[in-house]
Design brief:
The chain has about 130 residues and is mostly helical. Helices cover about 50% and strands about 0% of the residues. The protein has a single domain, classed as Non-ribosomal Peptide Synthetase Peptidyl Carrier Protein, Chain A, CATH 1.10.1200.10. The termini are far apart.
Length: about 130
């Protein structure tokens, strides 16, 4: 099912624009039902499309993504998923750290078994 909503719509529009630019087409001329290779997108164009989308959305995309997701809806869904993932990672990294749990009682201090107490010297009586 295609991604919808502000992120999905923005990503889909960006995919159409990136593909159209590589094929020297107007965005309305891109047929979302056709595969990119059927539209004439070559490997260099595929790299350019993924680079354009990666830069626009601030995500890492492999250039083979165009071949793994060969239509506008499939590529838009994959890019939207990468955007959501980046957002989740960023939010998790920026979330305040939970406070450390305090022990209910302090742990008893045990004597160190490796040391023995030094005897206290006793004064010797003077005659």
């Amino acid at each position: 099912m295609p991604e919808t909503g502000p992120v999905g719509d923005d990503v889909r529009e960006a995919v159409v624009e990136a593909v159209a630019a590589q094929l020297y087409l107007a965005p309305h001329e891109v047929d979302a039902r056709q595969t990119f290779s059927d539209m004439g997108l070559d490997s260099i164009g595929a790299v350019e499309v993924t680079n354009t989308l990666a830069t626009r959305f601030g995500v890492h995309l492999e250039s083979v993504l165009v071949y793994e997701c060969p239509t506008v809806p499939e590529l838009a869904d994959a890019v939207a998923a990468a955007v959501r993932h980046r957002k989740q990672v960023t939010e998790a990294a920026l979330a305040p750290a939970p406070e450390a749990a305090q022990p209910a009682e302090p742990e008893p201090q045990l004597p160190d078994p490796t040391t023995t107490p030094t005897p206290t010297p006793t004064p010797t009586p003077t005659p």
